[in-house]
Structure formats: structure tokens, C-alpha cells
Design a protein that fits this description.
With about 575 residues, the protein is α+β, with helices and mostly antiparallel strands. The protein is built from 19 helices and 11 strands. It has helices at about 10-15, 20-25, 45-75, 90-100, 120-130, 135-140, 145-150, 155-165, 280-315, 330-365, 375-410, 425-430, 440-450, 455-465, 475-495, 500-505, 505-530, 535-555, 560-565; strands at about 80, 85, 170-175, 190-195, 200-210, 215-220, 235-240, 245-250, 260-275, 320, 325. β1 (about 80) and β2 (about 85) form a beta hairpin. The radius of gyration is 24 Å and the shape is globular.
Amino acid sequence: MENFFSDNEHLKFHLSHHLMKDIVKLSENDYKEYKLYDYAPIDFEDAIDSYTKVLEVIGEICGETIAPNAEDVDKEGVTLADNVVTYAKGTQQNHEMLRDAGMYGLSLPRKYDGLNFPMVLTIMVAEMIARADASFSNIWSLQDCAETINEFASEELKSQYLPLIHKGYTCSMALTEPDAGSDLQAVMLKAHYDDKAKCWRLNGVKRFITNGDADIQLVLARSEEDSTDARGLSCFIYNRKDNAVTVRRVENKLGIKGAPTCELVYKNASAQLIGDERMGLIRYVMSLMNAARLGIGAQSVGLAEAAYREGLKYAHEREQFGKKIIEFAPVYEMLASMRAKTDGIRSLLYETARFVDMYKLLTKAGKVQTLSNEERDTMKYYQRLADIYTPLLKLFSSEYCNQIAYDAIQIHGGTGYMKDFPAERLYRDARITTIYEGTSQLQVVAAIRGISGGGFLKRIKEYEAINVKAELQLLKNTLIDMTHRFETIGNFLKEKNNAEMYDFNARRLVEIAGNIIIGYLLVLDADKCDKYENSARIFIQMANAENQEKENYIKNFTENDLAAYQAIKE
């Protein structure tokens, strides 16, 4: 039987990371919940055993149900009739299987029928589901909305909505509008309080809303009349049973066809406020977006894993000129690079998830007890790292996901261009990952702060201080040299004292730093498991060459070159 957890040793490897002991202890409230819930773990080993069993169940559903349904789901898509969006038959089956197995609301507290999973575990599930069918992962992963409700909503709202997630209620975040895409400060959907009905009313249009016909919606709306910026926006819950929102259309998309992308019209729709007014974008949606970007990282890694496996399988099966094409250097070089990139972004994914877990769990603990000075410092440390790593993860995972899907088609040749094999679907599904939840360009804007503020370099130096076994020292020395060059080229740009030139080369700086970080993560993985040494070696060689090219570009870039690019604006 196909099982997407049992057949993936990489997931098991990341589950064994040393930081998991701290994460699980915090998540399980020092293992005190077994007194309230008989299925709560009594210690770390019991927790890991419980997590593993859940992951195996989900892995089997992914391998035996979701993946086999993916092709038909892609063909069938979704339909809209009488203001109701209907999933493809395969999507309905996927949903029912996970619901009946109790696999919704995994990260929610047990008091709301969740399994209290840390973020790392939730991300593992997201990766497996994306490997099986990236479109269905968009439906499942929007439980990020439930996590936002749990973190910020009143106890009344949490009690009302969170138990529904376990029952399979779907969620969506209604943020973007026809004139407000990446710039959410421009959101203009109106919210006003109805004194008579004792509720808020929403009026306006939302566009590009993934799973827009969901049961529970988180809606960003302008609650402050005459405001034009983020300070006038609040966050609301809308319940679809109120039937006050019209699905005007379902978008006809390139990929991810199993998950509906909708245009919605709100007409005096009743809604409930989450948290405080005016904090909708500044606090709640930003938190939701960061979680969503982590989810896109998982989706990208899942897609990359699927594409790599399809390419590898075909290369072992296809014969040309009297031998399997895996024997040809251009093919096995491509596959080895795909493997190294997939291992790299997966390591970045789980490093980021661990950072998020640590700071979120310590923040949660601080609400019910006084943290020590050391604990507060630890919380702030991991929060800074999460802020630095999240845009880096979104950028690298989505870009590599697209590259790997592209290469999978190339390995298939003409066959890969046809719908006879999954490669073309994976390629289409991958394309959106660099766009939604903030384009790659926006991730650069977010990530460059870590470079200008020294955050990237500080973390790289921390990796550098970790001892590794002797056979990996040459790789580490290469990374040390790459780091030195990173410092040099960064100072070179700063000394020019030209903000436009710095901004123009921001992506190159971010990619140089990201290559070093991923290189270190792979070396540290290889220090624990020999199976990662080849990926570390291949990735660092590629990254070093790429960084040198980018550094030379920056060194030779002049103000006249900048002017040539800027001329396009005239």
C-alpha cells in the first residue's frame, strides 16, 4: 500500500530534530494534559509515537486516496450553480476520508476537538497532502484560519467556531480585492456596526479568494469610515449559513483546479469582529499571512518531491539508444540537482517551522504564566529568526519548486508535455506558488530587511560556529568563504550610498544569503545522517558558482547600467 509518510525517510529525519523535545514539551504543557484527555501523551516518547501513528494514517490516505484522485480532480475541477460551489468527486472523497479519520483541526487545542499538533507536525501533513494533490492542500491548509481564530478571537467565538473544524467545516481568508492585491492597505470592502442586530455588516467585493465558498471566512474589511490605510482595517468572521454572499464567478485557472478561486460579493452580510478594531491587517492578517507563507513552503516542497519522484521513475523506465536514460550524464545530473534542491528547501521549511513553533509556544505560555528572563529572551530570539526565515522560505521553496517541476517535464521529453503523465499537472500546479501569499518580488522586499539589519549574517555565523565531522569540513570551509564574500559584497553596495542601486540588487543579496543558509542546513543534516552528504556537496557546489556570478554582477554594475534599466519607466 502507498503511504506518503512511511515511504519518505526525510520526514522521519526532521521529526527527530533535537529541538523537537523543547517544542513538544511546550506544546503539551509539560505533559499535564493527560490528566484531562486520555489520548494526551505522558512524555516525549509517547508524544512522538502518537504523532507518528497520525502521520502514518494521513500518509496512507494520501497514497491510497488523494494521489489516485488527483488526475480526475484536475480534469473535473469545480462547478458553480445556484450560488454553490461543488467540488470534484475526488475532492469530496478526499475531504470525507480526512474528516472521518479526524484529521481536521490537527493544531487546535484538545478542548476544541483538535490534536494539539505543533506547527512542525502540521507542516509535515501539509507537505504530504501537497505531494498527493496540491489543489487539495489548498482546501486542507486553510485551517490556518482556525489557528488565527484560536490565537486572537474571544472565547465565545472560539467555542462557537473551532469545534466545527474537526467536523470538516472548510475555511477561507477573504483578503484581496479587484484593486487591492499585494497592497492590502488598499482594501475597501466596508464594515459597519448594526446596532439593532448587534452585529457587523459587510459590503463590497473580494477577488481571487481560494476556497471562497468555504463554511467559515475570515474577512479583512474597512471598519473606520474615511480611512485609507492599514489602521482603518479590522478582521471579521463570516458564516456561510447566513447566505449573504454571492459567488459571482469561479476563476478558470492554469492549475490547482481542484480548489475554487472565487470572486465574492458581500451584501449586508452579518459578521463578527475578531479581536480589536483597527488591528485587522496590522496584527491578525499579518500573522495569518505568515502562517500561509509557511503553508506555501510546505506545498512547494510537496510538489517538488512529487516532481522529482516522477522524473526519477521515468528515467529508470525510459530507454533510448539501447540503455535507460538515467545512465546519461545530462539526465542524472539534472535528477541529482533536483534531489539536492528538494532536500535543501525541505530543511529550510522545517528550520522555519521550528522557529515559529518556539516563539509561538513561548508566547502562548507567557499568557498563562510569567516567563523567566531567559524564556523571554528565547522567545524574542526565535521570533526574530521566524521573521527573517519566513520570506526566505517562501522565495526559495516556490522558485525551486517551479524549477524542479520544469526539469521533471524535461526528463520526460515530449511525453512530459502531454497529459498522459502527472508531470504536466505538477508543472501547472507549481506555477502559482511564486505568486500567491506574496509574490517572489515581495518576499525579497521582506527578506532584505534581515540583510540590511544584519539578521542573516548573524544566523550564518551561528551555523558557522557548529562543529561538524572531519569529512564535511571542506564543504564547511567553502561556506565560510562564501560568507566572507557575502559580507564583502554587502559592504561594497552600502559604501556606494545609493539606495536605488541597493534595492536593484536586493534579490541577488537575498539569494546569496539564502544559498549559504541552505548550504549550512544541508551540511548539518549530513553531519547527522550520511544520506544528505551528496545533496550537501551538490547544492554547495551549485550555490558557490551561482553566488560568484551574482557577486561579479554587483561589482561590475554601474549607475549607467541602472539608468538603462530605469529608462523603461519613461
